[in-house]
Amino acid sequence: MSEPAGAADRPPPPTILRWERFAGRLVRHRIALLTAAFVATVIAAIPASRLELDENLESFFAESDPLLQDYVASRETFGGDEFVLVAYEEENPTHVEELDELEVFSAKLSAVPGVKAESTQDLARTLRVATAPVLDILPPLAKRVARRVIRERLIDFSRRLLIGDNDDVSSIVLRLAPEDEAPVPRRQTFQEIRRLAAEHDPRAYVAGEPVQIHDMFRYVDRDSTVLGFASTGLMVLVILVIFRSLRWVLLPLAIVHSTLLWTKGILLEAGLKLSMVSSMLTSLLTIIGIATVAHITVLYRDLRQTMDRERAFCRMFANAAEPVFWVTVTTVVGFAALLCSEIVPVRSFSWMMSIGTTLLLLAFPLILPAGVLLGKDKPEPGPTAVERGVEHWLDGVTARIERHSALALIITAIVTIVAGLGCLMQRVETDFSKNFKASSPIVQAIQFFEKKLGGVGTWEVNFAAPRDLTTEHLDKVRELTQQLNDLKLDDGTHLTKVMSLSDGFDLIPPIIAEDWILKREWLGKLQPEFEPSLYNPTKERMRIVLRAYEQQPAEQKLELIRRVEETARGIFPDAKTTGLYVLLANLITSILGDQLTSAWIATLGIFVCVWAAFRDWRIAVISLAPNILPILLVVGGLGWSGTPVNIGAAMVASVSLGLTVDASILYLTDYQRARQRGASHEEAVRETHAGAGLALVLASLALMSGFSVLMLSEFIPLVFFGALVSVAMAGGLVGNLVLLPIMLRWLPDPVVPKDEPHRPPASTAEF
Fold this sequence. Notes:
By secondary structure, the chain is mostly helical.
């Protein structure tokens, strides 16, 4: 890749000369620029350290979202409904000794800070109702009969809630205090509950939607740090092996981490917080920044073979300025396209990455001049074995392109059609437990509850109720309760537990009271919290609490929610379903539409950017093909394999397009410059593969190594995102080195200026 003899003495084009003069000013003021960057970094470090992860469920939804509004309204009407479920296997859960042990364990759990002890439910407390002192006012025979009947009804009522169907499981339901009233953070409450569960013999399992949400944020928070260090470490290793110089390791790190602190400082000042998805901020900025510096490094090292370092820097900056600008813009467009998403964490991620990527453009001129020219003037090492191997491979690629271009186009067309059909077969994953690895404690707990206690999906259907209860209204509630118990979809999906106010009244045997008004009085004495948890006369609202399996296909879960609401509205027209189960099930139902919309926006935006960069709509069209194809393969592959789409997979299309098209811009810049000097298509391809092609391969290796680190995450959407983007990047590299050269043959020959006859390129590594 050395520059031809005498090339350094040839006058470069006017545009390059203007950029060289600008680069010369940067070189003269490099210490002042570096100082400014350092001061800005120090100032940003303090607010950046205060940027927090938003761990509220509400952060997933827009404030105007009807689902969130219904959930908040229910919480205000019936109190906070966040439950933690603790269960363990027990051979005889209704026996006296086992009940005594259960009561002791339940008391320990109830004493955990953040738990509403008075609202704890377990079989021991529940059966205590059958021996309540209030029953002593009955005659002896009636008292014995009432206690026996109430006990049997309570045991039956507690099935799949506090006791397993096969009398082999005991369960404790803990109600959490509202976060603003809890004496300790939720994280501490869950840690203590899990500690007590782990110490219990036999082992107890801890589950519930609040625990799932907590674990999700815990993994994300941990991954934010771990993946940031891991991606940095791996990419540093790759860069060190390729370039064999600490300068090209430390320089991108300085650029990336300064940019990261600036970004976090701006986010804090803007009142934003890190979200579930934006935990990738550190990793992605590291990946993008290091990959861009890798492109610059290849060019600079090549120019240093024939120039002194200041002149090499100015020529490198002049050649790289415009393409790096457009590379950054298209990357920002890819991230910004996600602003169309209805999922708030995705929009937050879009803002953060757009801001961070834009700030990289500021960091480069501030830090690069001093970073490249700092220290003694030593010659750059020659090409490494890796570089020579890549050059040899690229020579072979060039030869094969020329021989088999028609076959490559035919294969491309077939693959495109097959991948497009796969895109139509996608389905959404709404099983929230699938966001975690199967080995994680929360998934193991969920599986235990699904198998033994009818699942952990707790939700409700609520409806209007009169301020003063009537027999007619209770009859309707009883009718709806029965219909919900009988509800079963064609595939067998059903509710595993239905609990209504009429159920509570029916616990009171006729021997105590026959009229529902009297039963209501007795229920208030036996279970004071039962009625208030289901009926609020002040707000004239009532609900029926439901339970369903969490681990079931998305279509079944959403259809069950729809059928429950439809059934309820047949009796109570204003009925609404809500609860954490409903919120989580609907969280990503818009994901397919978001994916398609963001992909179209990214495609259109990138088309406009490439058109503006090269001032030729034909080049803009050609540049999209090799980058859209690998994304089609990834998305279509998910459809053909039946793999459900999660949040991470939904972001792949627009983000990958914004990243892979960068390679096209760099490739096209080299190719166009060669063609404008009068080189034939074949000569231009060979020159481009020897220059930009090598840089693309090395930078893509760094990119893919960085994204692959995300697969270490405990949070499955991050695993999907890292794996799929890595595959898309690999496909984009192949497309830009194989498909793009074939399509460029279709462009008309450029007009070579008469006053600038054909001559060799100033550098075969020009961007």
